[in-house]
């Protein structure tokens, strides 16, 4: 039987063992806690002990390493040595090897900083274990003709003995009566305390079989663990939150959160069974990890390995400046083929490794669902710092398709005519076949009626009729099919599944409403229309027009042709348009194209679904992504103008507050306090060269010193997304309070997605729109944040930006819109 304590401890032990296996015990949380506690004292000891380095072999080289880095070597190697049981006699050799490793990396960076960075990025990307990284580092440095004299065992021992002498003065280490090197009781206590705190701070919570206790303060307990009201440990956030609770401004937000987490769910067992069956039988369903790893491509033959070493040597010679080196065309083609073969092996290996965690999550989700089956359950919820609502439990409605489909309401309803209508709309939305979810509601209902035989067949025998696996949201679609079949078999049966209504590009909806921009509001369906508008397709069409013109421009014509041949569909620009509202720029959009388009296409090639990548090799993919992002970004700017002005206005406020070293603090129309604080930190980071960020993340707070003021760049970049997210969170909370006031108690929420039982969908949708209308009709949110900023400033009011002009859109128009939330 699963329980939170067992899952939490099990997850932590697994993570710790994996870290120890890959990086060594010195990189585990407990070890890093000791390093963090004693780093300053050890640094001082190293600084004092450096005067004895001249007596040691390679002393001057070791002396070039920063004191704090040598201190970290001492602590990391010392802790690893204790856990591995290294004897005091062998300890200098062990420590000396780590010193030599840091000297090697430092010398490589001094010799050629760019080449060193390239090597480090490559080996960290392709190797997770420290020993593999060490081997790859030496091999690549040798190929680059890096001059290095290999240390002998005597060199290791002499260097290590010097640092061991310092380590024995450090309060983290001591010798036992029988001269065994070990940790002090104080260090062990530091480690144990930190580990216990981390386990308590990051529990694996499960849904409860009783309703959660209502939120009244900034912290509560669930299944024996402390849970914060807001997911931020920033003291300023917590102080502001407590003040808002004391003065009553948080009352409406708390009542909405309590209502949201008081919804009783039941497990949709048929979906759980199909998820389990699909995985066990290796049925390919989008969103689920495959049961088996992708087969590894064949290794290089001996001849290919020999040629690869030969070509690598020529490339390094060319890099070193020997311009006479050039490969004939046939050899260049052969060399490229070999490198692509190696890259394919690396890509498949990394992809298979990513499936490990996904499979584990799937197994736990199935086990959790089976454990909860047969009785009602509840999921406690809390806020992030912007007021967005999240489930506290790992198994929650906000997860991906297969997990969300396992949720149904404990309360059910006998479908009315309206309820049946909205169940059909929901079914069409989840299917998304032939883009039916972009058509009017009547067309969606008609599509369901026309495909009723298929729908009933999917529900009757989903293991044989697999057409449901091609839906946009396969398991949600299947759940709706099963609900439809249940109604066909028994018109008096209860329907328990949530039907969902999503905002139409909610970020632009909020920006359009706050700026009263008629063009934007029309594109995101805040106006009356016979069918839904599609801002994503509008941007895609405009981008395609630009690319058609670019075909006549030699510099970019090949890239434009690649994009047009692939197809400039809405899916290619959707994430760019969505994140534009959150201050995403062209560079970030190019990264999105690499992540959302190029990488999945590469996976399809690796899985054998495509013969070749439609955008060519990695370099070509990168160039195409950058070109595509620039074109799409310009197209979005041409499509939505006032929202861009509003984002610049918000950035101006953040910069003005940063000028006085102040965070940006505002309250949403519902009274939730948002604190956006990006303090300056010393940019110095302490980490060992080949190790992962775990070292720098934990040690950094002890080394990095917070400087006065605010990081102006980060604050300006973050304010638009934070502000918009705080408003969509405010809208969601307002909707929850409104539906509770009319007796609608079964509601499931994910940011801009609202779900209810089918019978109440008409009333539910009307309340979603009316709350959106009221929020912007009765509040000028841009003026409000400007006023709050002015009240917090001391003398920089003249730096505040002017309020942007508003358009002539009337908020009452949303009440006539059918597709604002559809």
Number of strands: 17
Low-pLDDT segments, ≥5 res: 693-707
Find the structural class using helix and strand composition.
mainly alpha
Assembly of the depicted chains: single chain
Q: State the helicity in percent bands.
A: 55-70%
The gross shape turns out to be: globular
Largest sheet: 3 strands, antiparallel
Number of H- or I-type helical stretches: 31
Mean pLDDT equals 88
Question: Order of strands side by side in the largest beta sheet?
Answer: 11-17-16
Radius of gyration: 30 Å
Question: Beta fraction of the residues?
Answer: 5-15%
Q: Brief overview, please?
A:
With 822 residues, this protein is mainly α. It has 31 helices and 17 strands.
Description:
By secondary structure, the protein is mainly alpha-helical. Helix 4 runs antiparallel to helix 5, helix 16 packs antiparallel against helix 19 (474-489) and helix 23 crosses helix 26 (618-639). The protein is globular and about 90 Å long.
